[in-house]
Specification:
about 425 residues, alpha/beta, 60s Ribosomal Protein L30, Chain: A, Alpha/beta knot, 7-stranded parallel β-sheet, 5-stranded mixed β-sheet, 14 strands, about 40% helix, SpoU_subst-bd, tRNA_m1G_MTases_N, transferase, methyltransferase, SpoU_MeTrfase
Length: about 425
C-alpha cells in the first residue's frame, strides 16, 4: 500500500513546468524558423511549406558540400544523352540519308578502288576504336556515316567541327562493311601524312634504331600483321616499296588494329627513293630462311629467282610482270647479282642502325633490295627451319627478326649500363 501511495503522489506532481506556447506571437515563430526553408508549423496546427528560391540552396548544405560533390551533383542533373539543342549550341548538325543519296555511293568507291584512294587522297576507317585512334593521332576526318547518334557523341566534339555527319540505317552499313559484326560507324578521312601525324609519346620514347622495308608484300592480312609487330617492337618507321599492297586498304587496316597510327608508314616508294629515308650508316639486311642452301643453289644456277628469301628445292619462279622477270634474268646472266654474306638471325647485326627487308611469300625479295644490302654493308639473315618445311610466313619471319633485333639492343644497353662498355 505504501508503494501505491508513493506512485500516486508522483503521478500528480508535474515533472517540468508547462510552457503555454500558443500564447506566443506567431510572428516570432516565423522569424525563428526563417533560416530553415523546409516548413513552418503554427500553434494552430497549420503547416506551411517554404520552397527555396531559384538558384538558392540551404547555407549549411552548401557549406558542407565539397567542390567535387557539387560537380558530381551537377553532372547527375545532365541527362546521359545530349539533346539536339546541345549540338546546335556546339555548331554541330547531322543529316539523315535518303534513298539514292550520292554521298553513300562514294563509300564503296573508297573501299574498292586503290586508284581512287591515291587520286583523291582519302581513306575509309571503320569502327569506333580505329576512328578514335585516328583522331587522336591528328588524322583529318571528312565524312562520318553512323547508325546511332551515340556513336558520334563518343568522339571529341572539337574534332567534328566542319565534318559532314550523315545518319544512315544499320542495314546499309552492314551491306558496306566487311566485318562479321559491324560497329555502326564508318569515316572517310584525308590520307594521313606521316610528317604531320602525332604519334603516342610512349611509342616515341621506345623507338629503336630498327627500320622495316616491305618488298613485294601482296597479302593484306600479312602486311597488317607485320605493321602490328613493327609497332610492338618500336620500329622507327616502315617503308613500303611499289608492288606492295596498299597500306590503307581496309583489310590491312583491320589486320593492323591501329598500328597505322602508332608507327610512321611511308607508302608506294621507288627503290631509288628508299635510301633517302634511311638514317646515316644504316645497314640493310635481307630476311632469308634458307640462306645456306639458297647461296649454294645460286652459285650453281645463277638464277635471280633463287635469291628469293622463300626457298623451295623445286624450281622457283618470280610471280611478277613479264618485263620485270626478263630484267632480273638478264641481270643474272650478266653477273649483276650481288654476293651477300649469310649470317644467323641471332648473330649481332644491330651494332649500327639496321633496316630489315621482308619479301612476299610468292615473289620473294627484289634485285634492288639485294643491291641496297650490298651497298650498305649488310647481308642475309638466316632463319633456320626444320628440313622439309618450305618457308615461314612473311609476317612470322618479320616478327622473329624484329624482336630479335630488339633483344640484341636490350642486351647491349644492359652491358653498357653495367660495365660502361660493351664486350
Amino acid at each position: 500500500m505504501a508503494v501505491l501511495g508513493e506512485r500516486a503522489c508522483w503521478a500528480t506532481r508535474p515533472l517540468l513546468p508547462v510552457v503555454r506556447t500558443w500564447e506566443l506571437d506567431a510572428r516570432r515563430w516565423v522569424r525563428a524558423l526563417r533560416r530553415s526553408p523546409v516548413k513552418v508549423v503554427f500553434p494552430s496546427g497549420q503547416v506551411v511549406e517554404r520552397k527555396p528560391g531559384p538558384g538558392k540552396q540551404p547555407r549549411k548544405a552548401a557549406a558542407e558540400a565539397s567542390p567535387r560533390e557539387q560537380r558530381l551533383k551537377q553532372s547527375r542533373q545532365v541527362p546521359p544523352s545530349q539533346t539536339p539543342s546541345t549540338w546546335e549550341e556546339s555548331g554541330l548538325r547531322y543529316d539523315k540519308a535518303f534513298p539514292g543519296d550520292k554521298r553513300l555511293s562514294s563509300v564503296m568507291t573508297v573501299v574498292k578502288s586503290r586508284q581512287f584512294r591515291e587520286k583523291q587522297g582519302k581513306i575509309l576507317l571503320e569502327g569506333r576504336r580505329l576512328i578514335a585512334d585516328a583522331l587522336k593521332a591528328g588524322a583529318v576526318p571528312r565524312v562520318f556515316f553512323f547508325s546511332r547518334l551515340d556513336y558520334i557523341k563518343e568522339l571529341p566534339i572539337e574534332k567534328l567541327k566542319g565534318v559532314s555527319l550523315i545518319k544512315v540505317k544499320f542495314e546499309d552499313i552492314k551491306d558496306w562493311s566487311d566485318l562479321v559484326t559491324p560497329q555502326g560507324i564508318m569515316g572517310i578521312f584525308a590520307k594521313p601524312d606521316h610528317v604531320k601525324m602525332t604519334y603516342p609519346e610512349t611509342q616515341l620514347l621506345h623507338a629503336l634504331p630498327i627500320l622495316l622495308i616491305c618488298d613485294n608484300l601482296r597479302d593484306p592480312g600479312n602486311l597488317g600483321t607485320i605493321l602490328r609487330s613493327a609497332a610492338g617492337v618500336g620500329c622507327s618507321k616502315v617503308l613500303l616499296t611499289k608492288g606492295c599492297v596498299d597500306a590503307w586498304e581496309p583489310k590491312v587496316l583491320r589486320a593492323g588494329m591501329g598500328a597505322h597510327f602508332q608507327v610512321p608508314i611511308i607508302n608506294n616508294l621507288d627503290w631509288e627513293a628508299v635510301p633517302n629515308y634511311l638514317p646515316n650508316d644504316t645497314r640493310v639486311y635481307v630476311a632469308d630462311n634458307c640462306g645456306l642452301y639458297t647461296q649454294a643453289q645460286a652459285q650453281m644456277s645463277n638464277k635471280a629467282s633463287d635469291y628469293g628469301w622463300v626457298c623451295d628445292r623445286r624450281p622457283l619462279k618470280f610471280h611478277k610482270y613479264e618485263e620485270e622477270e626478263e630484267y632480273l634474268e638478264s641481270a643474272a646472266n650478266k653477273g649483276w647479282l650481288p654476293e651477300l654474306e649469310v649470317q644467323s638471325y641471332d648473330s649481332d647485326w644491330t651494332e649500327a642502325p639496321a633496316a630489315v627487308v621482308i619479301g612476299g611469300e610468292t615473289s620473294g625479295v627484289s634485285l634492288e633490295s639485294l643491291q641496297l644490302a650490298e651497298s650498305t654493308g649488310g647481308g642475309r639473315l638466316l632463319i633456320p627451319i626444320v628440313p622439309g618445311v618450305d618457308s615461314l610466313n612473311s609476317a612470322m619471319a618479320a616478327s622473329i627478326l624484329l624482336f630479335e633485333g630488339r633483344r640484341q639492343l636490350r642486351v647491349r644497353a644492359e652491358h653498357l649500363s653495367r660495365d660502361g662498355s660493351y664486350h
